[in-house]
Specification:
This protein is of the alpha/beta class. The protein folds into 3 domains: 122 residues, Response regulator (Rossmann fold), CATH 3.40.50; 135 residues, Response regulator (Rossmann fold); 103 residues, Arc Repressor Mutant, subunit A (Orthogonal Bundle), CATH 1.10.10.60. The protein has 16 helices and 12 strands. A 6-stranded parallel sheet has the order 2-1-3-4-5-11, sandwiched between helices. The protein has a 6-stranded mixed sheet with strand order 7-6-8-9-10-12, with helices on both faces. Helix 3 links the parallel strand 3 and strand 4. The longest helix has 19 residues. The protein is elongated and about 95 Å long. This is Substrate-binding domain-containing protein. It holds the Pfam family HTH_18. It comes from Luteolibacter ambystomatis.
């Protein structure tokens, strides 16, 4: 306690990170509203390595998942500490205020559902069963299952990102991405990881967002700049800062015991180019992805309109405005081109080619192909055999 009787609260935050800065704003808002504290700041590295910086400090708010020895020392001295990191190592006596991760997963899965995706993947370091973060993949799998989406998880080693790893490690990530059913939503552990997934996808011929709709976490500068701009979850930073200050105030007043965990929901998703095509319209995006996925099955314009929740006339108009195509004409064109490719480049039987292009019987395929090319499938194939 200072000489004038005002408690001194230290903010030991890595202000390089946007989330730490938002937590700081929340704490300051609490002090502006209620007063009664003197705030001081200390770089997180100093907090961990120089115990003398806590001389005269009455309590601490931090955001760290690293070395916890200094926090244990403060707790042993009776100083209340609140850690705002989502998944730090457990330290008895340290209070925690963090993001409720299932709410984040629900937000992302709802977005993937709006996009008409049937598959989702999660990429993060240390998601094995022995990790404190395994609960994230488990929660995501439960939430995707409820939404009718299949979830795929991939654990990345700590060095497995481009720029910090051998090329072989990048290829492990690329192999995982290539093996995913397309199109697929991809949630990454943070924005830098998501940006590197974008880079890997570009280098290995994977289209974003057509093949992979990529989402990060944190709303950091690296995701807002560059192309494509990154869709990202905005964690509740200011809200966490406010709650951390409230918890600390109650602990300092003796109304709360040491420890405790408070989780705050995620509510903000910033949609950018990494998950959004030219449609910029979730209903039209659903229809477009369904079209792209099932065009060779003979999907109808009526089915596309139902997926978008609009009339057939409205869907045709929106497809023309947004994509510059007539959906019925594009369905015919793609089926015809695929049939021509298979007839010219493979020995696949004509009846099988018809099935692959969505025709229930050989006669349906024969009539469709002759109507759109002027030749029968057999005659078309013979013309390439000469």
């Amino acid at each position: 306690m200072s000489a004038v009787g005002i408690p001194t609260v230290m903010l030991a935050l890595p202000l390089f990170y946007g989330q730490a800065r938002r937590i700081r704003e929340g704490v300051m808002a609490h002090v502006d509203r209620h007063g009664g504290w003197r705030l001081v700041e200390c770089d997180l590295e100093q907090a961990a390595s120089r115990p003398e910086v806590f001389t005269g400090v009455d309590a601490v708010i931090t955001w760290t998942g690293g070395d916890t020895g200094w926090m244990k020392g403060l707790d042993a001295r009776g100083l209340p500490v609140v850690n705002c990191m989502d998944d730090p190592p457990a330290v008895p006596g340290i209070s925690r205020v963090a993001t409720e991760w299932p709410s984040l997963a629900r937000l992302v899965v709802a977005h993937f559902k709006d996009l008409g995706l049937e598959h989702a993947a999660y990429l993060e370091r240390r998601i094995g069963t022995g990790s404190s973060r395994h609960h994230r993949l488990k929660a995501l799998r439960e939430i995707t299952r409820e939404a009718g989406i299949t979830c795929h998880g991939h654990e990345l080693r700590a060095h497995a990102w481009p720029g910090t790893a051998p090329a072989a490690d990048e290829h492990k990530v690329a192999d995982f991405l290539r093996a995913l059913p397309k199109p697929c939503g991809v949630l990454c552990e943070d924005d830098p990881a998501a940006v590197r997934v974008l880079e890997i996808a570009a280098r290995h011929g994977l289209r974003v967002p057509s093949d992979l709709a990529v989402v990060g976490q944190g709303n950091r500068l690296i995701g807002r700049t560059g192309r494509p701009a990154l869709t990202t979850i905005v964690p509740p930073g200011e809200e966490i800062g406010l709650k951390a200050a409230e918890v600390l105030s109650e602990r300092m007043a003796g109304r709360l015991p040491p420890g405790g965990l408070w989780l705050l929901p995620c509510t903000d998703l910033l949609i950018r180019d990494s998950t959004q095509t030219a449609a910029a319209d979730p209903a039209l995006e659903r229809a477009w992805r369904l079209f792209d996925r099932r065009v060779l099955e003979g999907i109808t314009v009526q089915e596309l309109a139902a997926a978008a929740g609009v009339s057939t006339k409205t869907l045709v108009k929106r497809f023309g405005t947004r994509f510059g195509i007539d959906p019925a004409g594009e369905i015919r064109r793609r089926r015809t081109e695929e049939a021509k490719r298979l007839l010219a480049e493979t020995d696949t039987p004509v009846a099988e080619i018809g099935r692959r292009c969505g025709f229930p019987s050989p006669s349906n395929f024969f009539n469709f192909f002759r109507r759109n090319t002027g030749a029968s499938p057999t005659d078309f194939r013979r013309s390439f055999a000469r």
